[in-house]
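Whiteboard transcription, Tuesday session. T.W. wrote the C-alpha cells on the left side:
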C-alpha cells in the first residue's frame, strides 16, 4: 500500500460495509478473507478490502471508552454531569463514538474535545486550571497579531531538536529499521537553515520536497534514538485583501481534483454552489468558504485520517473535524469554485507550545498566495474575537514550522509499507524490512532550543 490511495473512492460491498459500521469486526474479517481468496473479485476491489482491514485494526485503539467508562470520566471532570447530558452530547456530535460489537464506544480524547470547544462545560470544570494554557495562548496570539498589523510582518528564527524513539512493544533488536523524521522545507513564509543530526542520516530530502524528511537506516539496538536538530526562519507578512482590488483575470493553476479526498463530488459541487450564491469575486467566495468552515462547523479531535474515505465530505456534511479537515474542506471548495488552493502543514511552534497543525493557502490576484487557518479562525469565532477571526482569513502568525506543502505525497526515499499517516509528515514514519509501524508504536518529541526575532 503506497501513497496512491485512490481506491478509497471505490465502494465497499454492502454486507462488509454493514458489518464494519456495526463494529462486527470478526465476521467482517472472515467475509473479507473469502473475497480476497476469490479469483473473480477484481484486484482494485481487493485493494479497498485490504485497507478496510487496516481501518478495523485502528478503531478499537482510537475508540477505547465504553459508555460507563466515558460517563465516569465526564462526571469526574464536570460538576453535576448527568447521563442525559452525555446522551445529548452524543446526539449533537460533540462526543465522537462508534459501534464495536454492537456496543457504543467513545473516542480516546472525547473529554479533551468537550473542554476545548464548549464554554458552558468549561464553566463547570472541577479543575479549571486546565484552561490556563489555552487562555494564555489566546492572549499571545492577540499580541503577535497586533504587532504584525503594526509592523507589516513578523520574522522569527528558530532552532529545534526532535527525537524519535520506538516504544518497548515494537522494539526489535537486530532488525533493520527505516526512519523518516520531518524537516523544514522552502515554501512561502518558511526558509530552512542548517541541519544537524546527532544520529547519522542516510539521506536528507531537498529543500523543495513536498514533504521533507531526514532518512535513517540502521540495525536497531535497545534504547536507540534518532535525533535531528535544525534551524529555520518564518517571515509572516500581514495583508488585508480587499474585494474591490481583486484583478479581473485570475490564474487557473492548482484548481484540479486530487483523489481520493480533493474531489468535486455531487455534494461538494452543490455546497459550493449554495455558498457561492451567484457571487463571482474570488475573494468574497473564499471568505464564504472560510465562514462555513469556521461558523457552521465546529472543531473536533478525530481519529487517524485514513479511517475516513473522503475527508472534505466527512467535514462538510458532519460540520465538525480537526485542523486538517478544516483546511482540506476549504481547499476543495476553493478549487471547485476555480480558486487556486494548496495544502501547507507542519507544526504550530512557539515556546511552551508545540504540536501538529495543518492550514491552507489560496491564490488571489493581485495579492498572490494568501493563508487560511480555519481551525484557529473557528476558535476565535467561538471566543467572540472578531479581529482574530478576520486575521486568519489571509494571514498566519509566525509560530509555524512548515514541513509539508502538499497533501498525500511520497517520501524521499519512498516507503515500502503503508505509512502511519499516509497523508501528512509531522510525527515521523518508521518501518522494518518486513512491516510498517503505526502511530501507536513510536513517539516523536520536539524541543525549541531558541527563538529570536529577526
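and on the right, the sequence the group agreed on:
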Amino acid at each position: 500500500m503506497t501513497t496512491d490511495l485512490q481506491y478509497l473512492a471505490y465502494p465497499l460491498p454492502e454486507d462488509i460495509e454493514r458489518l464494519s459500521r456495526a463494529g462486527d469486526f470478526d465476521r467482517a474479517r472472515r467475509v473479507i478473507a473469502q473475497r480476497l481468496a476469490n479469483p473473480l473479485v477484481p484486484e482494485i476491489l481487493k485493494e479497498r478490502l485490504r485497507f478496510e482491514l487496516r481501518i478495523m485494526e485502528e478503531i478499537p485503539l482510537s475508540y477505547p471508552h465504553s459508555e460507563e467508562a466515558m460517563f465516569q470520566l465526564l462526571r469526574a471532570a464536570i460538576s453535576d454531569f448527568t447521563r442525559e447530558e452525555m446522551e445529548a452530547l452524543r446526539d449533537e456530535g460533540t462526543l465522537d463514538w462508534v459501534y464495536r460489537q454492537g456496543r457504543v464506544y467513545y473516542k480516546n480524547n472525547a473529554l479533551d474535545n468537550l473542554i476545548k470547544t464548549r464554554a458552558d462545560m468549561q464553566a463547570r470544570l472541577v479543575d479549571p486550571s486546565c484552561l490556563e494554557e489555552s487562555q494564555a495562548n489566546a492572549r499571545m496570539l492577540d499580541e503577535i497579531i497586533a504587532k504584525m498589523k503594526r509592523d507589516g510582518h513578523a520574522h522569527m528564527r528558530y532552532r529545534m531538536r526532535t527525537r524519535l524513539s520506538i516504544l518497548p512493544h515494537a522494539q526489535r533488536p537486530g532488525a533493520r529499521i527505516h526512519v523518516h523524521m520531518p524537516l523544514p522545507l522552502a515554501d512561502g513564509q518558511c526558509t530552512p537553515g542548517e541541519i544537524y543530526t546527532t544520529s547519522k542520516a542516510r539521506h536528507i530530502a531537498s529543500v523543495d520536497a513536498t514533504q521533507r524528511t531526514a532518512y535513517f537506516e540502521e540495525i536497531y539496538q535497545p534504547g536507540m534514538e534518532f535525533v535531528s536538530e535544525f534551524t529555520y526562519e518564518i517571515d509572516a507578512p500581514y495583508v488585508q485583501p480587499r474585494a474591490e482590488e481583486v484583478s479581473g483575470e485570475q490564474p487557473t493553476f492548482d484548481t484540479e481534483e486530487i483523489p481520493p479526498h480533493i474531489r468535486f463530488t455531487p455534494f461538494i459541487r452543490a455546497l459550493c454552489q449554495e455558498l457561492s450564491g451567484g457571487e463571482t469575486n474570488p475573494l468574497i467566495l473564499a471568505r464564504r468558504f472560510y465562514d462555513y468552515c469556521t461558523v457552521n462547523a465546529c472543531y473536533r479531535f478525530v481519529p487517524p485520517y485514513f479511517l475516513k474515505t473522503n475527508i472534505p465530505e466527512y467535514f462538510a456534511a458532519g460540520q465538525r473535524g480537526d485542523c486538517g479537515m478544516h483546511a482540506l474542506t476549504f481547499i476543495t471548495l476553493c478549487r471547485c469554485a476555480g480558486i487556486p488552493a494548496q495544502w501547507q502543514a507542519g507544526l504550530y511552534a512557539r515556546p511552551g507550545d508545540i504540536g501538529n497543525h495543518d492550514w491552507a493557502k489560496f491564490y488571489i490576484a493581485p495579492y498572490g498566495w494568501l493563508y487560511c487557518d480555519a481551525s484557529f479562525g473557528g476558535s476565535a469565532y467561538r471566543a467572540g474575537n472578531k479581529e482574530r477571526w478576520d486575521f486568519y482569513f489571509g494571514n498566519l502568525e509566525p509560530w509555524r514550522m512548515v514541513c509539508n506543502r502538499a497533501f498525500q505525497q511520497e517520501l524521499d526515499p519512498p516507503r515500502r509499507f503503508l505509512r502511519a499517516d499516509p497523508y501528512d509528515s509531522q510525527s515521523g514514519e518508521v518501518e522494518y524490512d518486513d512491516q510498517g509501524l503505526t502511530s501507536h508504536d513510536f513517539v516523536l518529541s520536539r524541543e525549541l532550543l531558541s527563538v529570536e526575532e529577526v
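Someone added at the bottom: The domain at 239-394 is CATH 3.10.620.30 (C8orf32 fold).
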